[in-house]
Amino acid sequence: MRVVVDLNRCQGYAQCCYAAPDHFELRGHEILFYDPAPSEAKRSQIERAQQACPVRAIEIEPAGLAEGDEP
Amino acid sequence: MPDETLFAQILDPKNRADPYPLYARMRETPVSRQADGSYLVSTHAALRSLIFDPRLSSEDLPPSRRPATGNPLKDWILNPIRNRVVNTHRPLIFRDPPDHDTLRGFVMKEFTIARVRDAHAKVATLVDALIDKCRGRDTVCLVDDLSYPLPVAVICELLGVPEADERQFHAWATRLATALEPDARHDEAGRREIAATFDVISDYMRRLIREKRRHPADDMLSGLAARGGRGRPVMGDIDLISTAILLLVAGHETTVNLITNGMLTLLRHPDELEKLKADPERAPRVIEEILRYEPPVHFRTRKALGAIAVAGATIPAGSSVVLMLAAGNRDPARFTQPDRFDPDRNDNQHFGFGGGLHYCVGAPLARIEAEIALVTLCRRLVAPRLLDDPPPYRAGASLRGPKNLGITIAGIA
Amino acid sequence: MTEVQRLGIVVVGASLAGLRGAEALRDRGYDGPLTLVGDEPHQPYDRPPLSKHVLAGELPPEATVLPQLSRLRARWRLGQPAVALNRERRVLHRADGATLPYAKLLITTGARARTWPGEGADLAGIFTIRTLEDARALWSALACRPNRVIIVGGGLIGCEAASCCRDLGLAVTLVDPNPTPLARLLGTTIGATLAERMRGAGVDFRPKTKVRAFSGEAGQVRRAHLAGGEVLETDLVIVALGATRDTGWLAAAGLAADAGGLTCDGACRAISIAGEPDPDIYAAGDVARWPNPLYGDRPMTVEHWGNAVDQARHAAANMLASASDQIPYRHLPSFWSSQFGLNIKLAGSTEGADALAVVQGTRASQRFLAVYGRAGRTVAALSFDQARWLPAYAEAVAAGASFPPILGATDQPRIEALEPGLPGPRRSPDRGAAALETAHA
User: Fold this and answer.
1) What's this model's pTM, rounded to 2 decimal places?
2) Which domain holds residue C228?
3) What are the tens digits of pLDDT across the range C212-225?
4) Which of residues 366-405 of C touch B (CB under 8 A)?
């Protein structure tokens, strides 16, 4: 699955790091390092991180979205 | 003409069960001056702007004063010193940067991801055990049976406070939590009681910290009390004590409300309760919506250090500013159908844990406790129904939540 | 059937702006044909990590593919750049000779890394960082543990690359003609703080000098010749000299386009050389130069992530709106950069700033918030590891508050007006004045 974080919005509250510690990590005071391509099996963890973000900076590709493109 | 008595009406216990119509009236004037000179801020946009505003100070507690004892040594020397010490070493929710940042840094270093993750299993076991205790009964009293004992046990374990001492500090914690309530803070007797309670609980913590230094364990207090380079404590003792008290009190007073408000809301929306029961993966959305819809903390007060222009008004320097977080959470300009409980809403940017510098330290733990408690309650309570709607509420208008929540059940699964 | 439903909308440039623009078209109900044309063979990917975590070896380059946030039902035409535009016939020509008709066009072709313009350009071991391929090639080269990396240019990309190389334990020399890193972007006063941090991390920072030429052995770069005559041994060079807007393919299109960008009106419509907006052609992202009402309608290009997203969404909305409902695009430029363990964020534009003040925290602690002023107005706010203060100051910048904007704050030092140390407005025929606005320059 695909994830992107709007790091202009991110203020380093680290809520995603508690929710999905294997995929989000805060470094220094407020540098967020995240995994932009976690396995689909981790979707519920990633969604938990998305929900917990106080500034709603995490965007996730909905499952099965890329299908339906035309040739 | 804006209503200058709205805040007084919010403090009035008869509006505790449903303050939301008052909040709606309040939002008609996003920043409104009250008869006592304070300013209410109630729209999402104005709150968002002020929550980040560095001119709003959190050091707005009236100075602490200890009651006269008749003992001149205490009244003239010891207590004035204690007052001064306490006033300059307040817990971090009443502090501004840079002190706030330093203290918060110490706490965050101990409030590790590993500790929070490890709390999962403990919470799950506790929730099941607490629900098991209700077997054979046809009524659950949610606050006494689960919402209160769960967070207390969790924060005690995390901090390293013996759970056996819980009985002692239950009353202290409840009294100290009133420090967040404006009526108690502005009332002389209330302030003295807060100060006296603070002294008692400080003595308790001082002993406990001494113990932790002698026999460090793998808990937050031991970590906070640890000595750094040159054998000196990393945190000053007085800051350490006020921080420990804050974590203990804040660690459960608010979570009690989150769990209770959550269950109340689900019982009022049985379809949502069923959905959560059928699909526990919905829990994170449900919790965030509870935090918006029925937040554990309804408002916080600040002091304006400079004049602040916001939402077409100007708050003069020196004013007391009431951030009506719960009113912002129901702002129709920010949320579609704000009075609808809808876990499926997207972009749910609520103020349930505050925001900015003072964003709730314990939020990740509160989320875990609320999620496990609500999911397990939905799964295990058979045919739950509200006994009284609305339930009786506790006195606080800011830390607002039911005193108890009677739920009739047909059994425990 | 209307023209748009028959011929559809074509998005030229399949990166962040193109993707978000295409999504916005669908989100707003456009259900006609939608084609995305991209010169790279990849699905849209995220560039900021390329000079950070990808370079540091923490993320494989292909992990940066961006999430699609809405169902696009698009035709993807990737791996073939657009080479020409015929507005009269409403067709787009691609490199493989194919033509593509359009009813409406969204141009999001972005920019390309400026390559080494001097002597030694054909040597192996000289890299840029812009594309996924760039990052992949550079990462493989770094993995061979070069003895010394030379970075040319102390802008954001150069600094981030230097930081990554130090994280990898590689010896790094950063050469920049200015007295400090990020001098053109943040000024030399703030730049000095960063220089200190950079040197503390072990970077050999060489200010006020230039690389005159590279020379090598057997086709591989070996030496950098500095302007002062000094010769540095090196086996890997990263050229971080900014970017030029990808407008070459528009040369014969009759649009006001040059290496500094494609000129647009306030609603993001491309302007023809006759000075009229083309009602069917919009642009967004790095390539678009538009009059920003937040800065007195000064023409700006903003080469940042946030602008790619916002402007593309805005342009998409205007594309679907009637001619009388075109909404001007207002944008507060913002960027972030992580380097040397520090999170740097800017909101606003420092161009032409004549005043600087640290308003929260201290420079000594390297954790602070500073504001830039221009003619008494606050034009930008900068955070070094103080992101939570930034929104209040960004709001003040957007409101055009007087300088300094917020007084009587907590943790506010005695405010002293500092000299920002920014260059005066500069024009070069190559880039135009607009280049000054950009961060990567």
Assistant:
1) 0.94
2) 126-242
3) 999 999 999 999 99
4) 388-392, 395
